[in-house]
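Recall the central idea of this unit: under ordinary conditions, the amino acid sequence of a chain determines the structure it adopts. In this exercise we apply that idea directly, starting from the sequence alone.
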Amino acid sequence: MIVRMAALAVALAASGALVANAAETPAPKDAKVYFVNLKDGAKAKSPVLVQFGLSGMGIAPAGVEMENTGHHHVFVDADPPKKGEPIPADAKHIHFGKGQTEARIELPPGRHTLQLVLGDFTHTPHAPMVMSPKITITVEK
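Accordingly, the structure predicted from this sequence is:
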């Protein structure tokens, strides 16, 4: 799947996919998300293949409430979310609410930071937050 960020943000906003979460969903303290195929300092060509890894929890699509599960979000050139706030749907916050574990993401040439954040059934980060360290990649022409 190739993700075109602007089109995805418009589709998510139109669908009403973001829902406010009254309470944070708990996550095991040892849960981790990570990039399988990308390391800090990597060079890539667009569209960039991004493979998502998860340990200590399972994957469930957005809208499906199951204990110890969530779905992936990739933050591009963005800071982590504030505690308890839903993850925005825009070009810097890419949602994978169908439970995807990899995607091809179109990025312009240059340096970019990437970070994975696991969201619960309402696109809200768990407590404690399950997120990867930020990595920096360079997209070549």
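The CA atoms of residues 112 and 137 lie 5 Å apart.
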